[in-house]
C-alpha cells in the first residue's frame, strides 16, 4: 500500500488512539487476540484487497479481476460497502478505508480485534498447522501467499511454458479446491483414514467368561466364524479418499496428445497443485466458521461500541446506522445469524446459572418455580452494583482496590488524573467487573428471558441437585450468582466449534421460534419456491446443509483403478439433494486434465414420472420421486451415463440425514 499519501497519514494519526484503546478494551473483556497491524487504504485498494481475499499479493489469474469487477460494481451501485477486511495471520493485518467516518472506523477496529481473537483461539484455524497449535505462532500467511504468487508468476513468465496451459491447469485445480479433508490437520491431511476390524466376538465371549454350555446354546460356531470373516472383509474395504487434491497430487497424470497416453505431471504442475492445495487448507478455517466468526466479531463490536460507549455521543447514531446495515443485509446473513446465536448462548448460560441458584432456595422446586418466583424482583436483584454500573470521576472514591471487580493499579492512576474515566470508565474494572456491568439478563432486550425457561429444563437442573435448601431467601441466592459464567462458556465454545457443530448444538426450538426462522423449498407441482416448514428440526437441517462442506457437494475418491482400467472413480456422498448434472460434467472435464485417463462420477438422481407430475400439479401436492444411482463417465471426448451397481450405490446413498423439508401440506 502507498504510505506517502497525505490523507492516509492524517487518517492513521487520527486512529492511533482508537486502535490502542480498542485493543486494551478487548483484552479487558477477556479476549486474547493476535496483535493487529492496521493499514489505511483508498477505495480502489480496498476493492483489490477484497478481490485478493484480504492479501496484497496473490498469484496471477483471471479470477481476481472478475472478483474485483464484481466488488467495484457492488460498491458503485450501492449494493454494499466494504468498511474493512482482515486476514488470519500472526500478526493479523486489517485494512481500513480512509473515507470511513470516525464512527465507522471505531466500529471496524473493535470488529477486527474480535476477529483476531477468533483467529488466535479457534481450533479449526489451528488445523492449518499441526492441529495442536504448536506452529501457529509462526503462521505468517502473508509471506506464504506472496511466495506462492512468486512461484506461479515464475511459471507464467517462463518462455518454456505456455501461459495458457498454466492458467488452464490452475482452473482445473480450482474446480476441486473444496474437495479436501478440512477436518484434519494440514500436516497429516494426506494420510489415509484406516478402519480397524472389530474384536472377534469369540474373544469377547472369552473375556466375559461365558460357560461352554451357554456358548453352545446361544451361539453357533459356524455363525461365529462367518461373522468374523465378514467383519474382517468390511474392515478391508477402503474408506474413500476425502482429500481429492492429495490423491491427484500422488496419482494424477496429464494426457499428452502427441503420444496419445497419460504422462507424469511436469514439475511445474506438481508445484502449482501443491500451492493451491495448501491455500485451500489455509482458507478452510474461514469457510468453516463464517457464521461463528462474523457473529463473534459483531457481538463484541456491539459490546464495545454500544454497551461500553466506545462510540462517542456524537458518533452513536452513525454507528447505529452502520450496525443496522450490517445486520440488515438480505439473504442468509452470517453476521445476524451468528450474533443471535452467540447472544443466545450467553443468555441460556446465564439463565441456567440464575435458575440453578433459585432452585436452591428453601421452598422453590422445579414444579412451582414459575408460581413462587417474583421475576420483577429477580431482575432488580440481578442489576449490577451501582459502583461498577456507573463510573465517573466523582465515584472513584467509592471503589475498593481490594474488590476483585476493580483494577487496583488503574484505579490508582485514575485517582491521580492519569486516566480519562469519563471516556474510558472500563479501565478501572477487571474482566469480572465488566461481566457484571454487562450481564445479559439485565439488558432491556432480554427482559423476560428468565421467565421463559421451560419446566423440562428446570427439571433437568433439579434432577441431581442435593443441596436444594442452601439459601433461605431469593436475595441470598442471587448474591452468589457468577456474572462471568456466560462469557466463559462463550470462550469455551469459541475454541472448539465450527459452524456445523455450533448450529447443531445451539439452534434450539426456542431460538427458532423467537427469531422467526423457517425453510422454503422448490415445488415441483407449482414451479416456484414456497414456505415449507417452521419446525425447528427442519430449520436446523436446512442450515446444516448450507454449511456442511462449505455448502458444496461432498465428493471423494472411491477407486483409482476402476474396472481395472486405471480409471478414476469419484463418488458424490448423496444427502437427499441432487447434483446439478451439467455443472458436474464441467467439473469432470477439468478433473480429466488432472487424471489423464477416463474419470467417473457416482451420484444419485431423483426422477419424476411425467404422469405422476401432472397429477400432482392438478392436486396441488408434491410428486413422489424415484432415486436412481447413476455413473457419469468422461473419456476426454464424450460423456456416458450408466446405471450404478447396487453395491456402489449403497456406499454413496443417504443415511438418515436428508435435508429435504418438503411438507405434506405447504405453509404457503
Describe this structure in words.
With 668 residues, the chain is an alpha+beta fold. The protein is 50% helix and 10% strand. It has 29 helices and twelve strands. Strand 4 (254-256) and strand 5 form a beta hairpin. Helix 6 runs antiparallel to helix 12, helix 7 (163-174) packs across helix 27 and helix 24 runs antiparallel to helix 26. The protein starts with 5 loop residues before the first helix and ends in a 16-residue tail after the last helix. The relative contact order is 0.08. The model is unreliable at 131-135 and 233-237 (pLDDT under 50).
Which key phrases capture this entry?
single chain; 668 residues; alpha+beta; five-stranded mixed sheet; three-stranded mixed sheet; 29 helices; 12 strands; 10% strand; globular
End-to-end distance: 52 Å
Q: Determine the structural class based on helices, strands and strand pairing.
A: alpha+beta
Q: Could you give a short account of the major beta sheet? A: 5 strands, mixed
Uncertain parts: 131-135, 233-237
Residues in helix, %? 40-55%
Q: Kindly state the mean pLDDT as a whole number?
A: 89
Which range does the strand content fall in? 5-15%
Work out the number of β strands. Answer: 12
| Backbone shape | globular
Q: Strand order, biggest sheet?
A: 8-9-10-11-12
Computed CA radius of gyration, to the nearest angstrom: 30 Å
Number of helices, where a helix is a run of at least 4 consecutive DSSP H or I residues: 29
Amino acid at each position: 500500500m502507498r504510505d506517502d499519501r497525505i490523507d492516509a497519514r492524517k487518517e492513521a494519526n487520527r486512529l492511533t488512539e482508537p486502535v490502542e484503546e480498542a485493543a486494551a478494551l478487548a483484552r479487558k473483556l477477556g479476549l486474547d487476540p493476535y496483535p493487529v497491524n492496521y493499514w489505511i487504504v483508498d477505495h480502489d485498494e480496498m476493492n483489490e484487497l477484497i478481490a485478493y481475499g484480504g492479501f496484497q499479493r496473490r498469484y496471477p489469474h483471471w479470477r481476481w479481476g472478475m472478483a474485483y469487477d464484481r466488488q467495484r460494481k457492488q460498491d458503485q451501485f450501492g449494493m454494499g460497502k466494504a468498511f474493512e477486511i482482515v486476514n488470519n495471520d500472526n500478526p493479523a493485518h486489517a485494512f481500513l478505508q480512509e473515507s470511513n467516518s470516525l464512527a465507522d472506523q471505531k466500529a471496524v477496529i473493535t470488529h477486527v480485534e474480535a476477529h483476531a481473537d477468533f483467529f488466535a483461539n479457534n481450533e479449526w484455524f489451528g488445523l492449518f498447522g499441526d492441529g495442536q497449535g504448536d506452529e501457529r505462532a509462526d503462521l505468517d500467511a502473508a509471506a506464504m501467499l506472496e511466495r506462492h504468487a512468486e512461484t506461479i508468476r515464475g511459471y507464467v513468465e517462463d518462455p518454456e511454458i505456455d501461459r495458457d496451459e498454466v492458467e488452464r491447469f490452475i482452473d482445473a485445480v480450482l474446480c476441486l479446491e473444496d474437495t479436501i479433508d478440512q477436518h484434519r490437520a494440514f500436516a497429516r491431511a494426506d494420510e489415509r483414514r484406516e478402519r480397524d476390524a472389530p474384536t472377534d466376538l469369540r474373544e469377547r465371549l472369552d473375556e466375559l467368561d461365558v460357560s461352554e454350555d451357554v456358548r453352545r446354546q446361544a451361539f453357533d460356531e459356524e455363525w461365529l466364524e462367518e461373522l468374523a470373516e465378514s467383519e474382517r472383509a468390511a474392515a478391508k474395504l477402503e474408506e474413500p479418499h476425502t482429500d481429492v487434491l492429495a490423491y491427484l497430487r500422488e496419482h494424477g497424470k496429464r494426457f499428452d496428445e502427441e503420444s496419445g497416453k497419460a504422462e507424469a505431471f511436469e514439475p511445474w504442475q506438481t508445484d502449482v497443485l501443491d500451492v493451491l492445495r495448501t491455500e485451500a487448507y489455509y482458507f478452510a478455517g474461514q469457510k468453516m466458521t463464517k457464521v461463528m466468526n462474523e457473529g463473534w466479531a459483531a457481538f463484541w463490536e456491539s459490546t464495545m461500541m454500544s454497551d461500553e460507549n466506545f462510540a462517542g455521543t456524537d458518533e452513536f447514531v452513525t454507528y447505529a446506522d452502520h450496525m443496522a446495515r450490517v445486520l440488515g443485509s438480505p439473504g442468509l446473513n452470517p453476521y445476524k445469524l451468528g450474533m443471535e446465536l452467540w447472544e443466545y448462548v450467553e443468555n441460556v448460560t446465564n439463565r441456567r446459572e440464575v435458575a440453578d441458584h433459585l432452585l436452591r432456595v428453601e421452598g422453590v422446586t422445579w414444579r412451582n418455580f414459575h408460581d413462587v418466583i417474583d421475576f420483577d424482583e429477580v431482575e432488580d436483584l440481578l442489576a449490577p452494583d451501582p459502583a461498577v454500573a456507573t463510573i465517573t470521576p466523582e465515584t472513584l472514591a467509592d471503589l475498593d482496590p481490594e474488590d476483585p471487580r476493580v483494577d487496583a493499579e488503574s484505579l490508582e492512576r485514575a485517582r491521580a488524573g492519569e486516566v480519562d474515566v469519563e471516556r474510558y470508565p472500563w479501565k478501572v474494572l477487571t474482566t469480572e467487573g465488566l461481566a457484571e456491568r454487562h450481564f445479559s439478563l439485565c439488558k432491556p432486550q432480554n427482559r423476560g428471558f428468565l421467565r421463559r425457561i421451560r419446566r423440562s429444563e428446570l427439571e433437568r437442573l433439579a434432577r441431581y441437585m442435593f443441596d436444594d435448601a442452601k439459601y433461605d431467601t431469593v436475595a441470598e441466592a442471587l448474591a452468589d450468582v457468577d456474572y462471568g459464567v456466560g462469557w466463559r462458556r462463550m470462550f469455551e465454545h469459541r475454541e472448539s466449534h465450527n459452524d456445523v457443530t455450533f448450529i447443531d448444538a445451539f439452534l434450539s426450538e426456542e431460538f427458532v421460534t423467537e427469531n422467526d426462522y423457517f425453510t422454503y423449498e422448490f415445488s415441483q407441482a407449482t414451479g416456484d419456491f414456497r414456505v415449507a416448514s417452521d419446525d425447528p428440526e427442519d430449520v436446523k437441517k436446512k442450515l446444516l446443509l448450507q454449511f456442511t462442506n462449505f455448502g458444496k457437494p461432498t465428493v471423494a475418491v472411491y477407486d483409482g483403478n476402476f474396472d481395472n482400467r486405471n480409471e478414476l472413480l469419484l463418488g458424490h456422498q448423496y444427502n437427499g439433494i441432487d447434483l446439478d448434472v451439467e455443472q458436474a460434467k464441467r467439473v469432470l472435464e477439468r478433473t480429466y486434465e488432472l487424471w489423464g485417463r477416463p474419470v467417473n462420477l457416482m451420484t444419485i438422481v431423483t426422477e419424476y414420472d411425467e404422469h405422476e407430475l401432472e397429477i400432482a400439479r392438478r392436486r396441488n401436492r408434491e410428486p413422489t420421486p424415484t432415486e436412481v444411482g447413476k455413473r457419469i463417465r468422461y473419456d476426454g471426448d464424450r460423456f456416458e451415463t450408466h446405471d450404478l451397481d447396487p453395491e456402489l450405490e449403497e456406499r454413496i446413498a443417504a443415511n438418515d440425514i436428508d435435508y429435504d423439508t418438503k411438507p405434506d401440506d405447504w405453509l404457503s
